[in-house]
Amino acid sequence: MRSKKIKREILFQGNEAIVEGAIASGCRFFAGYPISPSSEIAEMMSRRLPELGGCFIQMEDEIASLGAVIGASLAGAKAMTATSGPGFSLMQENIGFGIAAEVPCVIVNVMRGGPSTGLPTSPSQGDVMQARWGTHGDHPAVVLSPSSVKECFELAVRAFNLSERYRIPVILLSDEIIGHMREKVALPSFDEVEVFNRVRPTMPPEWYIPYEDTPAGIPPMGIFGDGYRYHVTGLTHDIRGFPTSRTDEVPAFINRLHRKIQQNLKDIQSVEEFFTEDAEILVVSYGASFRSALKAVKDARIQGIKVGLIKLITLWPFMEKFIKRHTENAKVIIVPEMNMGQMAREIERVCCNPVVRVNRVDGTIIKHTEIFKAIKDHIS
Fold this sequence. Notes:
Elements: E1 8-13, H1 14-24, E2 27-32, H2 39-51, E3 55-58, H3 62-74, E4 78-83, H4 85-90, H5 92-101, E5 105-111, H6 128-133, E6 142-144, H7 149-166, E7 169-175, H8 176-180, E8 182-187, H9 250-262, H10 265-268, E9 271-274, E10 281-285, H11 287-302, E11 307-312, E12 314-316, H12 320-326, E13 332-337, H13 342-350, E14 355-359, H14 368-377
Parallel strand pairs: 2-3, 2-4, 4-5, 5-7, 6-7, 10-11, 10-13, 13-14
Antiparallel strand pairs: 1-8, 6-12, 9-11
């Protein structure tokens, strides 16, 4: 008889699961700077990568960290960095560079309280809008949010796959609670993990057009050292990578950056629904706040209240059509999050129904009782 593959069951921290997911995806380069509450990612990478022939570098700051990651990716490595709010702020210019130069990489932000140094060891979800609009200019953004240790592993894999497929930096937006909590998870063996590797050019190097506008909007990526030499710049560039300000080339470049994401929303966007079939009240949540929201919704259902829950896994691109369609029949939408209402603003933008915010910014998780009270307060 053919033996079944046994998954590894292990008590894992969220940050540790991100490391394992990254390694399973083929990540072999990490550059970073320690910062709470993400430091375990760098610590574990410093041990795991050398064992696998990879490279770990502790950089002098977060600006240099993402610069090194971009350079490693251009040389062919799957590369990642990890940080928290203050370091994420420093990375914004290089995030923009990675978007403009179309360099795949993964940036983990384990959110903590802010602004500034804020609450270094306490949870927050205050970087949601920064993850979308932190770097300047018109640009696309892909941001994923885990709500369990298992999802930390799964979304780390997904972040690398999306990054490699669409040639874009992908942000994995965790938080202190998810990063530091421990849960038993069953990890697949590495050969069971579905991994996507960037599309490489097949034509001779002299025929290669590095930023060609293909039907998919995603040109194959030449690797430095393989003979595919091309100009890399953060300036707006033409199809060969050289800076341009021509009015017939600049819009084509910007539109392609957006098109390669917008025409693939079905692949990029991800969401989960709970009890939404007959819901008169809808709760929309993500990350650690989702865990409290699920408990509140289950308690309300026991009492016969018709309430449903939507968990956003992809935060950006925002699931505008999905939210608009699924909230049409709801009398009220409740949005719990550990900030002043950053995702609630997006939901208010696309919904005609009342939106109720349940917020905390004191460095503690929103309790399920707070969400349950908001549900009870809006029973007709």
